[in-house]
């Protein structure tokens, strides 16, 4: 059950600046809640501004905000950056720019997710923009025409994260697609990789013909892989459950609802889902590695992790594969059963597909996704039925550099060697422990607990089937709650925002 067709649920953007008349109508409890909220926001903003005190900031301006303690706290920063202050600033007035796609690979287990956060600089995006600014490839994020393909969570990795962005170019716009200009262009990947951490690297770049082509809105499908050990799982049952996932359906029971951020549509087109062995020569032991490969037009917040949590229950024979169909039937099951999503560490954004021609118009230039809360977003579709069939493609081809790829392989091999040594060492210890158990106690069954780590929840003494558990609030109740809180407002489709 979704919102009425003639209604549209949107975020109340005017909530943060309520007029005096509206404040006077609030109850004492509502006013106290608002004061607490504003104090928390003020504290967060103060910490954020203090982190921004760099050599380019005006010390007196911040002192007026924070008082004398800010001036004392920044003195050391200002002194240590005196050399940087003397560096000549890059002159952007005469610089050329070109619109490109960048393919980024990263291992996310040491980071707090991809997107920038107010309370942490330890994100993939923060490191990426520091590198872009340090290499003078962009003036600032605000004017870089930036979009990201996917917003991966904490610990999640990516082989094929793609961003669209305007970068500094050696050549004027009219010559940028000439073969000579492409071969003599700035080595974007090499330049970035020299200043990025070794577990965040740029793989390739692609010149674009349209200045509004978006890695977010022009992505037609995203493929993720979730890696897991076989353990005691029934792979056949999990494959049967995957077949039932492949449909265009409402996935509200397979995600973390993000209603307070205006997400009220949970329809997604899940194009394929399958369980694949990582090694064709697997030994059929609990230590064999598999991955769930899942492809869709877009994903909801924690959607894959919730799907994986249910698939693990199916693989452990605690649930039947048909539970997938029952959870997708939102008429019969409008409220999600309470269960924890699988952990994010094994998840990898593995591949993205893009349309040849953008559906966006020139007046959408610069409409960034800074406020995007969902992991990925459904593409904005427009009617292209009248477009000429022979219209030039906006996409070109990915440009790779042999030296950069060799260096990237070298770095990744070192990462592999480090974890393989640890894995082999642990595996040998396990072999010794298993031999001791067999020799001394001759157990009826082997210990097969490799997948417990993936299930981020307390193991109950007695398992309770999913459909018999307590339920979360329905979508309609959540919408009603946030409308009452004035976080969301309901509009007619004909109303302008």
TrEMBL record:
Enzyme's top EC category: isomerase
Source organism, top-level taxon: Eukaryota
Family membership noted in the UniProt record: Belongs to the tRNA pseudouridine synthase TruA family.
A molecular-function term among this protein's GO annotations: tRNA pseudouridine(38-40) synthase activity
GO biological process: mRNA pseudouridine synthesis; tRNA pseudouridine synthesis
Gene Ontology cellular component annotations, sorted alphabetically: cytoplasm; nucleus
Gene of this entry: Dere\GG20714
Isomerase is among the record's keywords: yes
PANTHER family in UniProt: PSEUDOURIDYLATE SYNTHASE, TRNA PSEUDOURIDINE(38_39) SYNTHASE
UniProt domain Pseudouridine synthase I TruA alpha/beta: residue ranges: 245-354
Pfam families per record: PseudoU_synth_1 (PF01416)
Organism: Drosophila erecta
InterPro entries associated with the record: PsdUridine_synth_cat_dom_sf, PsdUridine_synth_TruA, PsdUridine_synth_TruA_a/b_dom, PsdUridine_synth_TruA_C, Pus3-like, TruA/RsuA/RluB/E/F_N
Assigned keywords, A-Z: Isomerase, tRNA processing
EC number: 5.4.99.12
Protein name: Uncharacterized protein, isoform A
């Amino acid at each position: 059950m979704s919102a009425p067709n003639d209604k549209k649920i949107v975020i109340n953007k005017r909530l943060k600046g309520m007029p005096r008349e509206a404040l006077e109508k609030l109850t004492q409890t509502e006013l106290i809640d608002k004061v607490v909220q504003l104090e928390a926001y003020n504290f967060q903003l103060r910490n954020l501004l203090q982190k921004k005190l760099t050599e380019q900031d005006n010390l007196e301006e911040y002192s007026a905000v924070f008082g004398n303690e800010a001036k004392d706290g920044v003195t050391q920063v200002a002194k240590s950056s005196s050399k940087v202050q003397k560096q000549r600033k890059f002159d952007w007035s005469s610089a050329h720019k070109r619109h490109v796609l960048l393919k980024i690979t990263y291992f996310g287990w040491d980071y707090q997710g991809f997107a920038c956060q107010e309370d942490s600089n330890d994100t993939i995006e923060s490191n990426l923009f520091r590198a872009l600014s340090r290499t003078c490839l962009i003036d600032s994020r605000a004017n870089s025409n930036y979009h990201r393909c996917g917003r991966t969570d904490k610990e999640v990795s990516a082989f094929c994260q793609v961003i669209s962005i305007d970068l500094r170019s050696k050549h004027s716009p009219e010559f940028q697609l000439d073969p000579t200009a492409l071969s003599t262009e700035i080595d974007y990947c090499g330049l970035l990789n020299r200043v990025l951490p070794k577990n965040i690297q740029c793989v390739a770049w692609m010149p674009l013909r349209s200045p509004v082509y978006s890695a977010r809105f022009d992505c037609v499908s995203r493929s993720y892989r979730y890696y897991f050990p076989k353990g005691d799982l029934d792979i056949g049952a999990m494959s049967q459950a995957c077949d039932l996932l492949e449909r265009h359906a409402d996935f509200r029971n397979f995600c973390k609802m993000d209603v307070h951020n205006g997400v009220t549509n949970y329809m997604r087109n899940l194009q394929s889902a399958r369980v694949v062995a990582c090694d064709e020569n697997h030994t059929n032991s609990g230590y064999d590695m598999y991955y769930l490969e899942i492809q869709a037009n877009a994903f909801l917040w924690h959607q894959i992790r919730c799907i994986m949590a249910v698939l693990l229950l199916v693989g452990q024979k605690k649930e039947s594969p048909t539970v997938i169909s029952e959870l997708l039937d939102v008429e019969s099951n409008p409220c999600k059963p309470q269960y924890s999503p699988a952990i994010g560490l094994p998840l990898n954004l593995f591949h993205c597909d893009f349309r040849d021609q953008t559906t966006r118009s020139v007046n959408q230039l610069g409409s960034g996704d800074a406020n995007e809360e969902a992991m990925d977003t459904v593409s904005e579709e427009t009617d292209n039925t009248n477009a000429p069939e022979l219209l030039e493609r906006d996409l070109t081809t990915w440009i790779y550099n042999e030296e950069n790829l060799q260096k990237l392989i070298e770095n990744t091999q070192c990462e592999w060697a480090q974890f393989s040594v640890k894995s082999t060492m642990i595996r040998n210890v396990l072999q010794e422990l298993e031999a001791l158990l067999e020799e001394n106690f001759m157990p009826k069954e082997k210990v097969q607990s490799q997948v417990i780590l993936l299930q981020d929840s307390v193991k109950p003494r007695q398992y309770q089937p999913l459909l018999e558990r307590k339920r979360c609030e329905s979508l309609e109740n959540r919408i009603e709650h946030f409308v009452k809180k004035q976080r969301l407002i309901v509009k007619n489709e004909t109303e302008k925002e």
